[in-house]
Amino acid sequence: MLKLLFIGDIVGRPGREIVADRLPRLRQERGIDFVIANGENAAAGAGITGTIAKSILENGVDAITLGDHVWDQRGWENEIGQIDRVCRPANLPSKCPGWDHLIIESRGFRVALFTVLGRSFMNMKADCPFQTADRLVEQLRAQADAIIVEIHAEATSEKQAMGWHLDGRVTAVLGTHTHVPTADATILPKGTAFMCDVGMTGPYASVLGREVRPVVERFIDGMPRRFEVATEDVRLSAALIEIGASSTNAQKIELITVRM
Ligand SMILES: [Fe+2]
Ligand SMILES: [Fe+2]
């Protein structure tokens, strides 16, 4: 059996600090073998840098995924290809740098992993996430014992559709991007673990991780403002998945919340 933890979008320094502080103990207490984290908001809430990616990987994370904020930090496009265990969304245009999937071995399990961006209410140039997922699942099936698919999307409908589309063909379909954990963790009928959003890892006294006041004011008057990363009520939010030895199906999925 393999226990895999998928940590939702790490937001800024508070998100990085709770991962560094709490992940080692969580790994030990829950017997977690493998940890994936979305790092698209790790650098001051927008994007990631090489230094930050390396520090997250040193703090007990085995693989980092990204989302629509993938290119927010200048220079990252030159670094992404040089850091192992980081992948960019798979359905970005093919000329974009970075791996479109990862295969990492843990306790004899080969875990394959990729992210697809949704296209509803998303402002990124991206190919069809369903066709990209079909192509990669076909390619990875023979090379991996478990396949984890992240659907980084705004619309719950698109995320649910991806879960049903891949049910029985992958181990888990996990949503990210909306930063709010959903109460729908389930094993779909053909054995795929699913959750619309695993939530963010960062300050919850906020609007999606940012200081409340400037966001509220922006909604009222539409004027541009700086949205600093908030600091209070920091939580780590993740999905914990158990994978059986004899099949790629998931046996169990639960939401994990750890408070600072
Ligand atoms: Fe995010
Ligand atoms: Fe996002």
Fold topology:
Blueprint: E1 2-7, H1 12-30, E2 34-38, H2 50-58, E3 63-65, H3 76-79, E4 102-106, E5 109-117, H4 129-140, E6 146-152, H5 156-166, E7 172-176, E8 186-187, E9 193-195, E10 202-203, H6 212-221, E11 234-243, E12 250-259
Parallel strand pairs: 1-2, 2-3, 5-6, 6-7, 7-9
Antiparallel strand pairs: 1-11, 4-5, 8-9, 10-11, 11-12
Bound molecules: fe (ii) ion (2 copies).
Describe the fold and architecture.
- With 260 residues, this protein is of the alpha/beta class.
- The chain has helices at 12-30, 50-58, 76-79, 129-140, 156-166, 212-221, and strands at residues 2-7, 34-38, 63-65, 102-106, 109-117, 146-152, 172-176, 186-187, 193-195, 202-203, 234-243, 250-259.
- The strands form two sheets. Strands 1, 2, 3, 10, 11 and 12 form a six-stranded mixed β-sheet that branches. The protein has a six-stranded mixed β-sheet with strand order 4-5-6-7-9-8, with helices on one face.
- β4 (102-106) and β5 (109-117) form a beta hairpin.
- The protein is globular, with a radius of gyration of 17 Å.
- Bound molecules: fe (ii) ion (2 copies).
- One fe (ii) ion binds next to loops.
